[in-house]
Design brief:
The protein has 505 residues and is an alpha/beta fold. Helices cover 31% and strands 29% of the residues. The chain has 15 helices and 26 strands. It has a six-stranded parallel beta sheet, sandwiched between helices. 51% of the residues are buried.
Length: 505
């Protein structure tokens, strides 16, 4: 069975996901078979495996760093929030149902067998498992039958490294306070401390590190610098949303919906010279973009009503009337139609009118579509004509079925990547309004570059300096940079010692 090491954090967004990815790459580089694991993930960004199963994107990112294919075994439980007090519960990649927070809290102990079956399968196939916790192990109101922090550490007999975020301030109180609030039977599992996102001269920090080790009796095994690494973020805490709002030569505005999901769809544009990708949640931020993107969402109807109430829908309709490019992905695509109906109460129930930019009706069904797909763009009209015939790959993950009406034509022809069940139409286009159900549609260099080239030609701009990248190859370089940065600032000899010693039986 594999040895295990676990990364827990003093809070959400302390950097657990990224540090787990870095350790996965380091162990891979050192010749070990390594796999990531997170028993329970709460996120709106998800991924469909080749088997058609759904898992959190953080473990997909970590699997890439480990050099292996993503498997739902790495994330047996995924919670996708549907509102402020409830989530869709996905177990072993398939929807188990919607539960309120209280219902899930009472139910989660039933999932221990699923968690351990997944973990033990991975452990039998690998040398090392890098486990990620969630939130903080010191959330004392959630400790009962914990299955993701110290509860998981106990089940896997995994030593724990605790990460604190110095960039937010108060890192010493974070680490010491968390250690103090652990139960007595949990404290032996805490074997090392990590200070993350440090900027500046580390020698100034050394007296604090000495005090930290003295007060906790636990060694500090690393002070990770603030690394500017371009890999996929776990959830909406991402700094991308509050990032640069400066307008580039070619400007793309993504609507930051309240329940935005799979916003990693648009990451490829961030690495292109002269292109600005801005997330906007208010009309005043929209400005005059070349393309407006409406992304995926966990609750299409409610997020459409949110846009209707705050004026963004009216602004998008005005931009469409002026000939601007409007591009919808998944839930954003559904919003572009004429009607959205929810007869089974998959979302809020009932029916509402859509934006009316594409003659199309959408009905939400009880069964979720989950497939990996490959295909090509059809004869694309309007500004984005360079997309015609371009190859694409991605995945579908949605509850709705959309039926086109007269005046709209399909956007792409796709088929199931694994089942090879035959080609089918996907998406729609009308004028400069485009939509698709395919997540990851821009990941291939040819697609992103065709979009930017088309826009540049429409604006009369020389696009020769606006280059795309092979996004998969780009991410590989980022994982190597991450690993190198951690090797330089981590005591890897001590971390290997903690890993090899494990926990006593």
């Amino acid at each position: 069975m594999a040895k295990a090491i676990m990364i827990q954090g003093t809070m959400s967004n302390a950097g657990k996901s990224l540090l787990c990815a870095g350790l996965c790459r380091i162990f891979k580089q050192d010749g070990y078979r390594v796999a990531p694991f997170k028993s329970q993930n709460m996120a709106l960004n998800s991924f469909i495996t080749e088997e058609g199963l759904e898992m959190g994107r953080a473990q997909v990112m970590q699997a890439e760093a480990a050099g292996i294919k993503p498997s739902v075994l790495m994330n047996p439980i995924l919670l996708k929030p549907t509102n402020d007090i409830g989530s869709q519960v996905i177990v072993n990649g398939e929807v188990r149902g919607n539960m309120s927070a209280r219902e899930y809290f009472a139910y989660k102990h039933n999932l221990v067998d699923d968690i351990m079956k997944a973990y033990n399968t991975l452990a039998a196939e690998n040398d090392i498992i890098v486990i990620e916790g969630a939130g903080s192990p010191a959330e004392i109101n959630l400790k009962t039958e914990d299955i993701v922090n110290m509860g998981m550490a106990k089940m896997a007999k995994a030593p724990v490294l605790l990460v604190g975020d110095i960039d937010r301030g108060g890192v010493f109180a974070q680490l010491i306070g968390t250690a103090m609030l652990l139960d007595e039977d949990e404290k032996p599992y805490l074997k090392g401390l990590i200070i993350n996102k440090f900027r500046g001269d580390k020698t100034i920090l050394d007296p604090g590190i000495a005090m930290l080790e003295e007060k906790t009796g636990i060694p500090v095994v690393g002070v990770a610098p603030y690394l500017n690494i371009e890999v996929e973020d776990e959830d909406s805490l991402t700094e991308r949303f509050s990032g640069n709002q400066e307008v580039g030569v070619i400007d793309i505005a993504v609507i930051r919906l309240p329940r935005i999901s799979n916003f990693t769809d648009f990451n490829p544009f961030e690495s292109m010279n002269g292109v600005s990708l801005r997330y906007v949640h208010h009309v005043s931020q929209l400005k005059n973009p070349d393309m407006i993107v409406i992304p995926g969402t966990k609750n299409t109807m409610e997020d459409l009503l949110w846009m209707r109430q705050n004026g963004l829908e009216a602004a998008i309709l005005k931009a469409a009337a002026e000939g601007k490019i409007i591009f919808g992905v998944c839930g954003g695509y559904q919003m572009l139609g004429e009607t959205l109906s929810d007869p089974h109460g998959v979302e809020a129930g009932g029916s509402i009118s859509g934006m009316g930019l594409i003659p199309m009706d959408t009905i939400f069904e009880e069964e979720k579509t989950r497939t990996r797909v490959t295909g090509t763009f059809g004869q694309t009209g309007g500004v984005l004509s360079d997309l015609s015939g371009v190859h694409l790959e991605g995945y579908e993950i949605h509850m709705g079925v959309s039926a086109l009406k007269e005046g709209a034509r399909p956007m792409t022809r796709i088929e199931d990547f694994v089942a090879k069940s035959g080609m089918k139409d996907d998406g729609a286009q009308k004028g400069n309004v485009y939509g698709t159900y395919v997540h990851g549609v821009f990941d291939k260099e040819e697609v992103a570059k065709a979009v930017i080239t088309s826009i540049a030609r429409e604006k009369g701009i020389d696009a020769s300096d606006i280059t795309g990248v092979d996004f998969q190859a780009f991410k590989e370089t980022q994982y190597d940079i991450l690993a190198a940065g951690l090797r330089e600032h981590f005591d890897m000899e001590k971390i290997y010692q903690i890993l090899n010693e494990g926990m006593p039986e």
